[in-house]
Design brief:
Blueprint (H helix, E strand, L loop, with lengths): L3 E2 L21 H6 L10 H5 L13 H4 L11 E17 L2 E23 L4 E15 L2 E6 L7 H9 L25 H8 L3 E5 L2 E4 L18 E25 L3 E25 L5 E25 L5 E8 L3 E16 L8 E2 L3 E8 L3 E10 L3 E11 L4 E3 L4 H14 L2 E14 L2 E10 L7 E3 L7 E15 L2 E14 L2 E2 L2 E2 L8 E2 L2 E18 L1
Helix pairs in contact: 4-5
Amino acid sequence: MKKYRFLALAIGAVSLATITNAQTPSPEVMLRLSQYNYSFGTARSAALGGAFTSLGADLSSMAINPAGLGMYQSSDVSISPSITASTMKSAYGGYHAEDNKTQFSIGNLGVALNVYQGSGTLTSMTFGFSYNKLADFNNTSLAYNNGIGSSITEIFAERMNGVPVSIFDTDDPYQPFRQNLSISQWGGGLAYQTRLLEAINSNQYSPFGPTADNPDRKGALSELATMNPAMRRIMSGSIGEYDFSGGFNFNNILYLGFTVGLQTIHMHNENNYTETYNNNEYNLISMNYIQRQRLDGTGVNFKFGAILRPTQNLRIGLAVHTPTFISLEEEYIEFMGAEYKNVTPGGLIDSPYALNNYSINTPTRLLAGISYSIPKIGLITFDYERVWYNGMRLRNTGYWTVEDETKQMVKDMFQAANNFRAGIELTPLPKFYLRAGYALYGDCTHTDIYATSANCPVIKSYENYSAGIGFRFGHAYLDFAYIYTDYKYLGDDLFYYNEPGMEYPISSGTIDYTQNRHTVTMTLGFRF
């Protein structure tokens, strides 16, 4: 069976595009912008695992199944601040590291206005507005190894072969990047300017050290040297959605609803790669390669839902979420530096900024749920969700070949995922609630995808374990929830390169990442 790696070069240096100074999102970035987690809503919905497709009368309904608005018999306003603490661990060639990041945010803020109560077929009508946090990108990671046999500079040399050396003969340090060099070659251009590459002839390059054509050259790295790679990744940002919703109650049996969702996307990613060396008798001490990517965008989607209550205590829900049509602005830049013995450090050399605009479509979602309540005892609820990640699309690049290539890569790499959520709520005392929940967001990758070398490690599945309590004080309410999230990642190569005819690939070896996140959410609300 054919196996796929996400991209061919190190730490996001290669994109799908081969266009001058242009970059499009790699499939793993598209995936990251499409993975939502319903643990960031109200404390009640989070504590119940996000299993709210058949439940209602909660402000989180607007982001899950807007038909739940139809169950309101009064108006509602609430705010849900939360604190998240993320821990990222790595295992790389026998070496282990971890990094942590804590973030404060607003998970949900909204209002539902019950504008009509009647006795006819249309029993009630409620409109609402809310902000819902759907994804959190805030995490940092560290991974390092000692004594590997490959260097990232070998890939820089492979990528630069065929580029005329003459383009570097200029007083303008940015000239190489204005002469038909794609982003995949920026790292090579920076490596040449920091003397990590040497020209063999007019359009071929060698990484530091003696070569077959020049065996006596005393380069930056000796043949017996080995590499100590390290990677520090810093990610920040989130996906938030402003929902404008309406819910309608027909005879307290059928509830229908709609949502227009407006998303805001902010994702900043920095990859800081370094190499130091063992047994190097020449001058090179270390090299440093930094890549910074900023993605900001807006998107729109539509949600339609229904809830059927055939008996007083039984509820059955169904919702469809269209793809989110996202327009993105990207800013991308690289830096490189090297430290040599007996040479004053020259600082970092930077590439030009790549400023790009394009669009993506996230997956379609189908949600189904069922819940059953027992008066004075509690309720139990279950959800199933199908997400077609293989339907993600790249749009409006101006290059249809790139869009077609991305479409095929997405189909090859991803599959539809099956998600399951469940929750239970007990009422041991009047106006006091105990809650627990679980959510499994299923594997969205094909089994023959086994490693990645791109902007950020790929989350293939994740689980939420949640618990909470709730209090009612007249018209006011106060809820608390704790959510533990466990993420599973694909193996990640810092760099990897292979072409037909190569005796063996150039590879850093695979890093195994694990991540867990602790989230505490409080909801303070008032019904009127």
